[in-house]
Design a protein that fits this description.
Elements lengths: L16 E3 L2 E6 L5 E3 H14 L3 E4 L5 E6 L4 H10 L7 H6 L2 E3 L8 H11 L13 E4 L13 E5 L4 E5 L4 E5 L1 H18 L7 H4 L12 E2 L10 E3 L2 E5 L4 E3 H10 L4 E4 L4 E5 L20 E3 L14 H7 L7 E4 L11 E8 L2 E8 L7 E4 L1 H6 L5
Parallel strand pairs: 6-7, 7-8, 17-18, 18-19
Antiparallel strand pairs: 1-2, 2-5, 3-15, 4-5, 4-14, 8-9, 9-10, 10-11, 12-13, 13-16, 15-16, 19-20, 20-21
Helix pairs in contact: 1-7
Amino acid sequence: MSAATVKGWCPGAHRPMLAADGLVVRIRPRLARLTAAQALGCCALAQRYGHGYLDLTNRANLQIRGVAEGDHAALIKTLADLDLLDTDPALESRRNILVAPFWQSGDLTHRLTKALIDRLADLPELPAKIGFAVDTLAQPLLTHDSADIRIERAASGLILRADGAAAGRAVTEDTAIPALLEMAAWLGDHLTPDHRRMAQVLNHAPLPPEWCDTPALPAAPAPQIGQQSDGALIGAAFGQIDAHALAQVIRQHALPAIRLTPWRMFYLEGGTLPDTDAFLTNPLDPVLRVDACAGAPYCPSSSVETRALAARLAPHVSGTLHVSGCAKGCARRGPADLTLTGRDGRFDLIRHGTATDTPERRALSPDDILREVNTL
């Protein structure tokens, strides 16, 4: 296997990341869709080689944590047998494509995503975190999700939009992918050690005017957990999916497939809301307003446990809550109404900010926070 990397970049399947609990192996399903056989295979792999959970990332990928280095080759072989890998590790790392999950077979989102996958080899060398979004339903669903270059609907036709820009470049289905490759090359030429994402680059390098002359549409309302027209959208607390419970739902409902989202929710194709406590089925569940990373003992950067505290605080904190094991803030890049950042075994408290911001209170224990929760 390839040497595992300790931290600082996005893991893949061929090139996993080494964490405190073992390897983190990331799976990037094409079109954010797993057939029933693929999903059941991932559940079995998580139970055999990991901790029994699948982590749903904010890029609609899955991660299996806790994989022993000696098991990586066997896991990779099974993923390949399930058709969940690119044979070329370089192409796998470029297949960082976020897709609006409610596409239909053969529609524009489906066609454009397949066209982009076919042209991945033509992309320039870019940092591993650079990603793309195909978001061509009636209104954009992925506006607030991580992507550097976006294909979206406009008031008339399509636009190609750089993340951080209010407007985009008018394109057609035929010109969208060539224009995306051109913008990716422009991005590659303007990256610096301190500006490694599109929104950062735009702070010091303006786009060509003709690339930002068509206004973007406003974002669609955020999808809600519940029954949909062709299936059911359910949630996973903190993005952690119990592999055994998911396998049971797939079998009991005879689902053809599931689809992943960047919202800690997944879509049961043709399914109904399951009767289980393993997943979130109430759109008002307070846990949906909470972000929490894996924390200690799973992450070597964290000195605190995170998710147990987050679950206890969720019903008592109004607004959004972010419990971060360290100042990197991996679980939430934007501000939250209340952020708790782990440091030296305790927590710093930040209001209306991110994990990197200056705290107003420092070195709080979980008991301190729980005692004062009604005043936060």
